[in-house]
Design a protein that fits this description.
Elements (H helix, E strand, L loop, with lengths): L19 H34 L10 E6 L5 E2 L7 E7 L4 H14 L8 E7 L8 H12 L8 E3 L4 H9 L9 E5 L5 E6 L5 H15 L1
Parallel strand pairs: 3-4, 4-5
Antiparallel strand pairs: 1-2, 1-5, 3-6, 6-7
Length: 213
């Protein structure tokens, strides 16, 4: 069997017969594509920072959070005035939330009990909570593996998430989302999505803000 490859008649493997002008156009095309790809990546990086920063300084919209586990009363916007508040929205069904929650618990558990701090864990379904009993059971089962001393709330009609989506840079609400609210009820920091180590960074910021009160 002959394993030698021979190009079809009339074709050549040599590039010597390609006119210089065509080769120049080919390089120009590759350079243009590469430049556009780089510009696209830089734009996405800028967009991510812009979306994150554009939360900051906005007034917190109305909030309606109901006790789910370990909470004694509901939380409204007015209940948060004068304190630093951490609102952590997550779901047991959400893989990024499952990655982030252990870091959230480890970062904020040492701050639990501070007189000027509210840490609220909000367990969410993917939409409005029509079955709070199932949500409570799933949340309790998930929380057994963590030292999470702060109370857990629900957002039964998704009212709070809908209000936050109205001021979100993307116009929608993603999971997980952590929002830090200042004593003036304006958003001081917001984090959407999971990034390793981000909860420790937020906790350090919260400690600094508490010292400034």
């Amino acid at each position: 069997m002959n394993n030698d490859y021979s190009p079809p008649k009339g074709l050549s493997e040599s590039h010597d017969d390609i006119p210089p002008a065509d080769r120049s156009r080919g390089w120009l095309y590759l350079i243009t594509i590469g430049t556009l790809m780089l510009m696209g990546l830089l734009f996405l990086a800028w967009l991510g920072n812009s979306r994150r920063d554009s939360w900051v300084g906005k007034p917190l919209p109305p909030v309606d959070l109901q006790p789910l586990i370990g909470a004694e009363k509901s939380l409204s916007r007015e209940d948060l005035a004068g304190q630093i508040t951490v609102l952590h929205f997550w779901g047991t069904w959400c893989p990024p939330c499952q990655l982030e929650f252990p870091e959230f618990a480890a970062a904020f558990a040492p701050l639990h009990g501070h007189p000027n701090l509210i840490v609220a864990s909000i367990s969410c379904s993917s939409g409005p909570e029509y079955d709070l009993s199932s949500l409570r059971e799933e949340t309790e089962a998930f929380l057994r593996g963590f030292d999470a001393p702060f109370p857990t709330y629900s957002d039964p009609t998704a009212f709070t998430r809908q209000q936050l989506a109205l001021i979100a840079p993307s116009g929608s609400f993603g999971y997980p989302t952590t929002i830090i609210v200042g004593p003036d009820l304006r958003i001081k920091e917001a984090a959407v999505g999971y990034r390793e180590g981000h909860m420790e960074e937020l906790a350090r910021n919260v400690q600094r803000w508490l010292r400034e009160l």
